[in-house]
Amino acid sequence: MPASYAYLGPEGTFTEVALRTLPEAATRELIPMVSVPATLDAVRSGEVEAAFVPIENSVEGGITTTLDELVAGSPLMIYREVLLSITFALLVRPGTKLSEIKTVTAHPAAQSQIRNWMKVNLPDVVWESSASNADGARLVQEGRYDAAFAGEFAAARYGLEALETGIHDAENAQTRFVLVGRPARPAAPTGADKTSVVIWQRDDHPGGLRDLLDEFAVRGVNLMLLQSRPTGQGIGNYCFAIDAEGHISDRKVAEALMGLRRICLKVRYLGSYPRADIGVEDVRAPLPGTSDEEFVTASDWVARCQDGRF
Q1: What whole-number distance in Å separates Cα of residue 149 and Cα of residue 9?
Q2: CA–centroid distance for 16 within its chain
Q3: What's the pTM?
């Protein structure tokens, strides 16, 4: 594989800023791409070693474009995640006044994070979405729009100035980004890990979702994300993206996945990787009966019973 990472571009996106927080990014060629699908397809084709894309934000939830691309197509695997605090700046061509702004652009995910600010400060402005926040800044530079919501750091890159800074509707808003590569053996567990899967029900029946969740609950596996996505095969036909605490090498997580594999039409494993929100010292103690040691003890007891040694 080439020693390069693709990311949602162009230069000056929050994605690029988050990617550069990874130590290994300093040793890779970083290649901006025009969209999330193009970024992930660069991995599938072997053009790059890995891709870095947004997958969730704390205001709107999952980034549906990324989730749908991971659900469809040839399998990919998440290796790392990064959390980045997000605030926006209103970028304009030098000399532009707030009263002169008639059109504004940004990535669709940004709109939910600055909607109330716009109602107060730019109530009559026309919004149009762009491929990314940095791409919106580029379009302002070219004269296509009067202003763009983007990171303040993008202003210098595109010859703009920040008319307003620190723009956000929700305090402490964050976006989660993931480093995605081709399937391989997961990294060793750290003790503070997350496992991501997508599951498809075998059929639609009362309590069907509860049956899926029970595979985690009865083993003491906590869920961090549950999001339904349409399969494209008719109204009401959904698959479910799930993030669970723990690593696939943990006995309770492995058994939960085995249970899902038995009762589901399909399960797509998206990886086990270190959590970015907490460290090992912050991981809560497992519920009674759900530690690896207790799973091993129970398994040994069953083996002794089978041998008549109970």
Answers
A1: 15
A2: 15
A3: 0.88
Which tens digit of pLDDT belongs to each residue from 14-56? 999 999 999 999 999 999 998 999 999 999 999 999 999 999 9
User: H-helix or E-strand containing 307?
Assistant: none
Q: Distances from the Cα of 38 to the Cαs of 26, 131, 136, 193, 291, in angstroms?
A: 22, 12, 18, 28, 41
Which has the closest alpha carbon to 242: 254, 232, 230, 257?
Answer: 257
Residues 263-297 pLDDT 10s: 999 999 999 999 999 999 999 999 999 999 999 99
CB of 14 within 8 A of CB of 82? no
Q: Which residues neighbour 31 within 8 Å (Cβ) at sequence distance 6 or greater?
A: 4, 5, 6, 7, 9, 42, 48
Residue reference for tokens 């296509």: 144
Residue 210's SS3 state is: helix
